[in-house]
Amino acid sequence: FKDFYELEPEKFQNKTNGITPRRWLLLCNPGLADVIAEKIGEGFITDLSQLKKLLDFVNNEPFIRDVAKVKQENKLKFAAYLEEQYKVKINPSSMFDVQVKRIHEYKRQLLNCLHAVTLYNRIRSDPSKSFVPRTIMIGGKAAPGYHMAKMIIKLITSIGEVINNDPYVGDRLKVIFLENYRVSLAEKVIPAADLSQQISTAGTEASGTGNMKFMVNGALTIGTMDGANVEMAEEAGEENLFIFGLRVEDVEALDRQGSTARRPPGPLPELRQAVDQIAGGFFSPRDPGCFRDVVDMLMNHDR
Q: At residue 87, what are phi and psi to the nearest 5 degrees?
């Protein structure tokens, strides 16, 4: 649309996608909806801006306790569901770190994988150190012919297999791929999430509505200034989101330099180690070359 917009800008206006709080708060998280209604009445159901009234209660101990209690109940319920579905024992007091969306290179599930591997290596190199236990969940479907997306799913499950069965790690870190991600599963996982991963490359407009569902359920957002994260930061105050990474103008500047040329994973030994492990078959011992394509893409033509 860019060229048309430059010709006749007055014909264009932006509408950011939205979600319905009836499904994504009332229906899937009745406990939280009740706690909110108790404090500010039921007007927010049809006028979400009334949630601003909750600002009066940010330091209210009983209210904070009630919200935390609802979250913990949701986590216990979801941990039981995961145990039944995936036969993996989940620590319900671990941080539920969730990224659910279509599997796509620019949504950067790969970045999340590198983070999981790095956390794993940190625990392995110093098992006596205290770590916040974390359960990383990545879910989403891949388009039928999208080879790289299928490989990313394979990588997530392979990393999970190694980490989840490592006795050194115990229940401090688990990696789960949520299969067949769909609305009915979203309604279970989103109310239980502590951390919402919205880490697409800035400018790709990839953070759309999942981020809003997580936020209205009281998960913290970590992410880039992309898509609706921008409006969420405006509404909630940027200091209440964990924003990181390049901004749109930085990405454009990199593009102009032609930064897709091969570059080493820089001065970060942890990143180098993670990439080397994936490339070398650490997570695919039965097929050591399995992820060569993924690493090749990452190193040579990573958009």
A: 55, 30
**Identity of the residue numbered 265:** P
Q: Which tens digit of pLDDT belongs to each residue from 154-184? A: 999 999 999 999 999 999 999 999 999 999 9
Beta strands in the chain (DSSP E): 95-100, 134-139, 173-178, 195-198, 220-223, 242-243
Query: Is the separation of the CB atoms in 135 and 174 below 8 Å?
Result: yes
Q: Which amino acid is at 201?
A: T
- Domain span at 248: 90-301
Residue (of 181, 126, 134, 125) closest to 153 by Cα position: 181
| Strand pairing class (195-198; 95-100) | parallel
* Cβ partners under 8 Å of residue 59, min gap 6: none
Is there a domain that residue 27 lies in?
no
How crowded is residue 46: how many other Cβ atoms within 10 Å of its Cβ?
Answer: 9
Phi-psi region at 145: left, alpha or beta (left = phi > 0; alpha = psi -120 to 50): alpha
Structure tokens, 44: 């927010």
Q: Summarize pLDDT for 95-137 with one digit per residue, the tens.
A: 999 999 999 999 999 999 999 999 999 999 999 999 999 999 9
Domain harbouring 282, CATH code: 3.40.50.2000
Instruction: Report d(CA 149, CA 103) in Å as an integer.
Output: 6
**Encoded tokens for 160:** 């999970």
Task: Report the candidate in 244, 210, 241 with the shortest Cα–Cα distance to residue 224.
Answer: 244
- Could you give the number of structural domains in the chain? 1
CB atoms under 10 Å from CB of 73, counted, come to: 15
Token pair belonging to 134 = 């974390």
Q: What is the DSSP letter of 8?
A: -
Alpha-carbon distance of 156 to 139, in angstroms, equals 10
- C-alpha distance from residue 148 to each of 86, 161, 187, 197 (Å): 24, 20, 28, 20
Of 21-30, 188-197, 246-255, which range is least confident? 246-255
